[in-house]
Amino acid sequence: MRKTYRLQGIGGSIYVALPKEWLKRFSLGKGSLVEMVLDVDGSLKIKPLYIGNKLKNETVSRIGINLKDVKGVFNAIVTSYLRGFDIITINFSSGSMEKEVKRILDEARQILLGLEITDMDSSSVTLQVLSTSEGDIPSLIRNMGKIARSMYLDVLNALINSDNELAEAIPLRDLDLNRLYFYVTRTIRKKMISHSIEQRDVLRFIDFRMIAKAIEEIGDEAKKASRDVLHAIQLGIGLGEEIYRLRSSVDRLDEVFKKIIRKSTLSIDFIELYNDMRICEDARREIIDLKNSVAKDLINKHIIFRIVNAYENIAIRIYDVLSLIPSEIELENQDYIVE
């Protein structure tokens, strides 16, 4: 909604009328409290300080499907979820499709946190995201980091100890990591489209989205490496003494990553950030050297090469996370109060 209003002078003060639709939407009237924020671009934002009731009109995503496009139902559900819709209604023309649609819904619910079936009959199904709290985004990202960290550490442990069971368990954690990733993405996008965040925070939320993606990719690399570890164990292939070179490099990476995900806030001292990025880059170069060494014997060690390559990619993703974490200097420069 974009309209032009003329400023009015009453006594020694300047006033502007507020849109009636906006006042009605948030049940505002004389005496209601609003918050006013001056953005860096000169715009003035006014928002209700208290919102007693939820908006009456919920965003509903209606997806019409037929027998030919039933395979597209999964992607449609995921897209609607990520776009922040709270209720998703799917209509299908034939009762014979109900079984297949139900199977797809069960698959979607495995990766989409809070998505539940609230109504279903032979021609339609209604899904709702029942999570009432959007969650603290930094906290959700830290939880993602803890899962991803356990995955890449246990890949190495499984390789060192020839532990089949541990290697087989690692891909199962990727499902939980993906659930959190989708939920973080949904939460960020919902905040962005609702205009409930300040202009100065937009870039920060974009960075959070990229951090979550980098952590999700760490999990993907660990999952792929775990499968190669299983194959290596079956063939009796290992790194020999070079495993300790890899362990040393991974330990250095882990100290950096562990420090990030254990902080109460996703921020870091500028000097500390610089040192951590240097440690991360040094560890990556060590892994590259090891990979080049393994490459000389690819006839017998191509599987090990892929495992080491996965850790190089993990080092790159950890570096990406570091580059997106705001320094405490940046946060201090963003703090200002309009009275």
Count of distinct strands = 8
**Apparent shape:** flat
Quickly give the CATH architecture of the largest domain: Up-down Bundle
CATH class of the largest domain: Mainly Alpha
Helix content: 55-70%
In percent terms, what proportion of residues is strand? 5-15%
Major sheet attributes: 4 strands, mixed
Spatial sequence of strands, sheet with the most strands:
5-6-8-7
Mean model confidence by pLDDT: 82
CATH superfamily of the largest domain: Phosphate transport system protein phou homolog 2, domain 2
Number of domain modules: 3
Which fold name corresponds to the CATH topology of the largest domain? Methane Monooxygenase Hydroxylase, Chain G, domain 1
InterPro entries: PhoU, PhoU-like_sf, PhoU_dom, SpoVT-AbrB_dom, SpoVT-AbrB_sf
Organism: Ignisphaera aggregans
GO molecular function: DNA binding
Protein name: Phosphate uptake regulator PhoU
Can you characterise this structure?
- InterPro entries: PhoU (IPR028366), PhoU-like_sf (IPR038078), PhoU_dom (IPR026022), SpoVT-AbrB_dom (IPR007159), SpoVT-AbrB_sf (IPR037914).
- GO terms for molecular function: DNA binding.
- It comes from Ignisphaera aggregans.
- This is Phosphate uptake regulator PhoU.
- This protein is of the alpha+beta class and 339 residues long.
- It folds into three domains: 36 residues, no CATH class; 70 residues, Ribosomal Protein S8, Chain: A, domain 1; 198 residues, Phosphate transport system protein phou homolog 2, domain 2 (Methane Monooxygenase Hydroxylase, Chain G, domain 1), CATH 1.20.58.220.
- It is built from ten helices and eight strands.
- The protein is flat.
- The two termini are 26 Å apart.
